[in-house]
Amino acid sequence: MDISIVIPLYNEEESLPELTDWIRRVLEKEGLSYEIIMVDDGSKDNSWNVIEQLARKFPQARGIKFQRNYGKSAALNTGFQASRGTVVATMDADLQDSPEELPELYRMIVEEGYDMVSGWKKKRKDPLFSKNIPSKFYNWTARRMTGIRLHDFNCGLKAYRRDVVKSIELYGEMHRYIPVLAKWAGFSKIGEKVVAHQERKYGTTKFGMERFIRGPLDLMSVIFISRFSKRPMHFFGPLGTLIFALGFFAAGYIGINKLYRLKHHLPTILVADNPYFFISLTCMIIGTLLFVTGFLAELVSRNAPDRNQYLIEKRTENRQGKSKST
Fold first, then answer.
1. N or C of the chain: less Cβ packing under 10 Å?
2. pLDDT tens per residue across span 149-171
3. What is the bridge-based pairing of β-strands 116-120 and 158-161?
4. In terms of DSSP H, where are the helices of the chain?
5. Among candidates 171, 188, 288, which has minimal Cα distance to 239?
6. What pTM was estimated for this model as a whole?
7. Distance of CA 287 to CAs 50, 128, 237, 247, 294, Å?
8. Helix residue ranges per DSSP H, 111-204
């Protein structure tokens, strides 16, 4: 199968028939074999009945239903595991992503050798203050912190090589940072394509103000996990040592200064009356706690069952040069 299209959705009953028919026309015109996987994330409307009707009408369409709303990341993760195509594409169900972009995304993966291609909604049809400006800020922050030069991390229209989606796990709000997870998993050829973006035709957006809190927290989580999950002591150790050293030398200075003043009969105060003594003591305590945290995290990491599991692309079978994929 050439391409799998994974569509996470929540209360999108009006748009599903039109979207499915649009995808079918575009891909059949290009002569691509395909499947459409619609993941119903606990919709409260008639979305699941519409999906069942579409599955009976189009053999390429199938659905997965969640008992309740788990979020877009869980829906994508389930769709990725169910996909069978050489290329896996994702798009939103609200008709703001155009299926006309799918053939070119497929070509960039297959012919140009990209591991993943992310869409860039250069001209967004969204409200300026509630979506456009916050999106630009988050994308700028993500570029600076991850080193991945993408303009639109959160664009729903993306395409991946099959190996990519089978090698990453999504949870929380991690769907915003799939490029970071892909790069961490060893898939570094990440491309970008300007894609058309349309105004929402039916319903309203399903993302509220809580995304402004969850987004930055998940960005910090994914950066920490991608850099230090296998070596947490490399993060906590230096930080704890630095803070402890600052507190230790500050306390040493306070003690030496006290002795110097006593020796030369200069006015002085009790060390316990000096506020800087308590600041230095707090620094030493925090530094010690960070170091111990790193030590315990290192013990947990070293005993994790998947510590030494890596993605093996090929393995030689014998001296005649045969190989197999794993």
1. C
2. 898 888 999 999 999 999 988 87
3. antiparallel
4. 16-30, 47-57, 72-82, 102-110, 133-146, 162-165, 178-184, 211-228, 233-263, 275-302
5. 288
6. 0.73
7. 57, 44, 9, 8, 11
8. 133-146, 162-165, 178-184
